[in-house]
Write a structure and sequence with these properties.
Number of helices of chain A: 13
Radius of gyration of chain A: 20 Å
Helix content of chain A: over 70%
Low-confidence stretches of chain A: none
Mean pLDDT of chain A: 86
Distance between the termini of chain A: 29 Å
Structural class of chain B: mainly alpha
Strand content of chain B: under 5%
Strand content of chain A: under 5%
Number of strands of chain A: 0
Helix content of chain B: over 70%
Largest interface: A-B, 35 and 31 residues
Largest sheet of chain B: none
Oligomer: heterodimer
Chain lengths: 262, 219
């Protein structure tokens, strides 16, 4: 119950903090909005010269890109922002003040640094561009495939979060991990259909760049071109491995930090 | 590598006959040239310093702000330049069809990139946070400059319109002069030169107006 109260307080505080500078953030809205326009324009320009890619039409590619945008905003604002704050606090030593409180450290960072206002502010106009660009009649979407696509979205998000927690935990030893977290920007993937991606791309996605999975796998699955088990099995294995590894490394790092700072 | 993967997939699975090697060479060269010229790096650094309020301490020193920012960029971000040179080298190994016109095109590309950086930096004198505008410019630069889709892949009428804009002269034109020079006409080069001249005059005027205004208000 205490944790819930704390999470609620953090969310409210975060909301107020983001709104306090809302005017300054309008240029970000323009930036993401125009990014979406140029991305959709690029897909349209490519399809001015071709009819389909691997049997998928223009609207299906934009649909995959729409899921990719959702993946991008969730990775940046729900995964990266809290972990960056964690790394900064390890670096500056401010983590001490949280260690003496009876709260779950990761819940604390997730709830206080997930920028819901930024997600709403930046993502909604961007999604609008993609949604308006799609001729929905050209898509053949089933309820089951779409629901499973959401399940895979959550699962790939969890792998991404756990994987980047491992990278963030290296700050306990090195004092810094911002560059390692920057990998999320460098390897953020492309709007290509997952079933057509080369094997090395998929291998990277399942191992060291899970955000690449998150960007393209759910959208491709929703189109009904992937089978369930060949997707479910490697994702489940990746979840188990990243969970065990991240838990072990984070706890070991935390102990090291605690013993050094006490 | 990631944009090249997308084009590999398009080359492999679409109903068009495009040669993957041409696209791979194009993207290595375009990315290398764009990184070497600095994209919007100078404006980024300038906007960051303006936001932190660090410009005042620079303005009282006898340094040229733009030269200083370029010094920061080329002096300290050596790794970016090394990666850019490697990228250009790979592109040239894949396909080389060099034209001497490149020696005319590179100064144009550099001038347009510099003036756009100056114009974007000038925004920082007026707005507290100008990075959104800089990012917006960057997205247009990627699309119209040919970093997302090579202009030779576009329908001819659309490519001709893009070639009338300044963006294409910073990336696409120099890249093609190293890869497929016959696709770039003298008219294209003259268009680039006119843009470079017009933008230089505009950037000079706006920069000096902005810096005077900043000096008067900010001191």
């Amino acid at each position: 119950m205490k944790s819930l109260t704390l999470i609620k307080a953090n969310v409210v505080h975060n909301w107020q903090r983001s709104n306090a500078f809302f005017g300054n953030n309008w240029t970000n809205v323009f930036s993401t909005f125009f990014y979406s326009i140029t991305a959709v324009a690029a897909i349209n320009l490519i399809f001015a010269s071709i009819d389909s890619i691997g049997g998928l039409n223009k609207d299906e590619i934009i649909y995959i890109a729409l899921w990719g945008q959702l993946g991008f905003y969730v990775s940046i604002y729900v995964t990266l922002a809290p972990l960056k704050a964690l790394v900064e606090d390890i670096h500056s030593g401010s983590l001490d003040s949280w260690l003496i409180r009876p709260v779950s450290l990761l819940s604390q960072y997730m709830s206080s640094h997930t920028d819901f206002v930024a997600i709403a502010r930046d993502a909604i106009p961007s999604f609008g561009v993609y949604i308006l660009a799609i001729s929905w009649n050209n898509l053949n979407l089933g309820m089951l495939d779409t629901s499973l696509a959401f399940l895979f979205f959550v699962m790939t998000f969890y792998i991404t979060y756990r994987f980047y927690l491992i990278l963030a935990s290296t700050a306990f030893w090195q004092g810094e991990a911002s560059s390692a977290l920057g990998l999320m920007w460098t390897l953020d993937g492309q709007s290509l259909p997952f079933n057509l991606a080369p094997n090395w791309y998929k291998t990277l996605g399942y191992t060291v760049a899970p955000q690449m999975l998150m960007r393209i796998l759910p959208g491709t699955y929703a189109l009904g071109v992937l089978s369930f088990w060949p997707v479910m099995i490697p994702i489940t294995i990746a979840i188990i491995v990243t969970y065990i590894l991240s838990r072990y490394i984070f706890n070991k790092g935390l102990k090291k930090y605690g013993s050094a700072s006490s | 590598m990631l944009p090249i993967t997308l084009w590999f997939v398009i080359a492999e699975y679409s109903n068009t006959t495009i040669e993957f090697r041409t696209f791979a060479a194009y993207f290595f060269l375009a990315a290398g040239i764009s990184h070497f010229l600095g994209h919007v790096a100078v404006a980024s650094e300038f906007i960051k310093q303006a936001k932190r309020g660090e410009l005042n301490s620079l303005l009282v020193k006898p340094v040229n702000l733009i030269t200083y920012m370029y010094g920061l960029r080329y002096g300290f971000v050596i790794i970016v330049n090394i990666v850019a040179i490697i990228s250009i080298a790979i592109g040239l190994i894949l396909i080389t069809n060099f034209s001497p016109k490149i020696f005319f095109s590179i100064p144009i590309a550099f001038t347009i990139t510099l003036t756009m950086n100056v114009l974007l930096s000038s925004v920082a004198f007026y707005l507290k946070e100008a990075s959104g505008i800089k990012n917006t410019y960057y997205h247009f630069h990627r699309l119209f400059g040919g970093l997302l889709v090579p202009l030779f892949f576009l329908p001819t009428n659309i490519a001709s319109i893009f070639l009338l804009l300044p963006f294409a002269h910073t990336v696409y034109v120099p890249t093609q002069l190293l890869q497929n020079p016959s696709s770039i006409t003298n008219t294209n080069l003259i268009t680039g030169a006119v843009w470079a001249a017009v933008l230089s005059v505009t950037a000079y005027a706006i920069w000096h107006h902005s810096i005077k205004r900043y000096d008067a208000v900010g001191t």
